[in-house]
Protein: Ribonuclease R
Organism: Fermentimonas caenicola
Amino acid sequence: MSKKAASQEPLSKPRKKDLTVLITDFLTENKDKQFNYKQIAAALNVKGEDGRRVLIKVLDKLRDDDIILESSRGRYRINNRGLILDGRFERRSNGKNFFVPDDDGNIIYIPERNSKHAMNGDRVRIQLLAKRKRADTEGAVIEILERAQSRFVGVLEVQRHFAFLVMDSKYLSNDIFIPKEELRGAKNGDKVVVEIVEWPEKANNPVGKVIDILGVPGQNDTEMHAILAQYDLPYKYPENIEKYADTISDKIDRNEISRREDFRDVFTITIDPKDAKDFDDAISFRQLAPNLWEVGVHIADVTHYVKPGDLVDVEAEKRATSVYLVDRTIPMLPERLSNGLCSLRPNEEKLCFSVIFNMNDKAEVKKSRIARTVIKSDSRLTYEEAQTVIETGKGAFATEILKLNDLAKQLRDRRFANGAINFERYEVKFNLDEKGKPLGVFFKESKEANHLIEELMLLANKTVAEVIGKVPKDKKAKAFVYRVHDVPDPEKLDTFNAFILRFGHKMKTSGTKTEVAKSLNSVLDKVQGRPEENLVETIAIRTMSKAIYSTKNVGHYGLAFDYYTHFTSPIRRYPDMLVHRLLERYLNGGKSADQNTLEAQSKHCSDMEQVAANAERDSIKYKQVEFMSDKLGKVYDGVVSGVTEWGIYVEINENKCEGMIPIRELDDDFYELDEKNYRLVGRRTRREYRLGQPVTIKVAKANLERRQLDFIFAN
């Protein structure tokens, strides 16, 4: 029997609610045994007639609810069938924690008292509790299977013999207790990273130790490092791995060149952003015959230098992607590789993995091949330089660029005709001073030069995926890493269609994938320049599935490709390195790789991609708040970009900075959230605030540490 249960105070007048939890806990701890009511009473220290009477009633109720089983007359055991679940714990600072089961079933509420101090994202095992009338299903954590996060960022409050880490966390309301001997020289007011070492069962606060001092709150480097630390992302490259990378030879062996196709004398250029340092793709171009062109997509041969299991590879796999914050890049590979050995810099011999296309004037691919190559780029162009050539028809390499652009435009038109979805969103960029302070905001939009490179990269990725995945019906394709984008959920499409009807728009929600996609594109075209443009585009994006990496190919809905992968950016994405290795293996006649291993790697890469995107988003938010911090009291026009039960998010038209009008500011009525229709509605006045609605706001507060702007409505 459980010592914990037997040590309790006698229960002469127990409450049914308390007994329910105690019984299920006791029987769960002894899940392989059965007990009669007297043994259970003794274990729980239930005394007296009243206590036993309540106990029997609770036992009967738990049996009727299938929480426990009466395995033989008067003998009970826990019902393990479907009542013990594994899944993910989601913690909230307001105590409204919940559990997401692995089988994608309904979420289950976990009261704080039953959380067992599980942290946000932990994999846990729960026990379902008896369902109370008119209450949601509840559960209790019985085991923490895997910790998701143990490190937190905050500001130190140092007292005489101990300290606390104070955080502004939506996941953890409890400050972390730090013994004085675990401060590692950190001082009061420092922003630090703390690791939780234990959380005693009966303690309100977890116990931690300082593992890194980030610096003074509000300083640029401190806050950027804090964002990275918050997501458990590295902000410096391990010295031992950089030293190892320095030992990799930069000499290209003549024998290696002889094994490759030689493109050194073929016209080749790179086109990249002006601030790029790593050039991982180049384009070669030459005419083979009248109406026949050779277009080569040459990708840095990273896997020639980085071998499976070496120090660089292990670190790259862990990182899975480069992280792009507003003012810095956290590279996946050491600088010697990313900016040096592998970067396709002009006038340098470089090793590549290439896809070479023979195309006619209609951009129809007549033949393609995949080959290891050696190139020597003639020039490095920025997108702006290439765009000038496209717009004026003049400049260096005008003949080649204009022809490449003509072919790319045809590829693009054909892709949209086949049902690709046209989501063109601007990027917010900042002009920064030498200290990282934002001086201005501008928007980066894709133009023809961007589309030129984009279409050729898409074609290369598609071709590589087809070479491996497209096999005769009687054959099984070898295990591979695909970039997949599933079709939208039909229910979400129906909801979207019902929503746009109020603006006079309608789309097909049934039929072929191409028909549905074309119908959606038609709606997106029609809303351009109309008041509802922002609203419709936002909800359309939310209707789509997320693109991920997987060995299970379901095609790429958004691009309208049946086969697609990522091959073209191995300097900044680990999945591309996996694809390069698999290509080499299969082109050399190797047997299929282990699918389970590849699927686990794919999932890790998808997860890290999301983490990197969140960190990037937070860095943009920080710079937006910093940019707006000297504009308190100013009035701006904006649109409602989000509605929640705690407030209205508004995006300023002029600079795309986003802030929130807290719900407390809406004091003219009691507002309720209508999630289905993306709006807040006043209970008395019926006044509504909906997604996409134009509003005029005044900047009220700018909190740098919380990365939050507060607005109020301008009168």
Observations:
- The radius of gyration is 30 Å.
- Residues 453-622 form one domain.
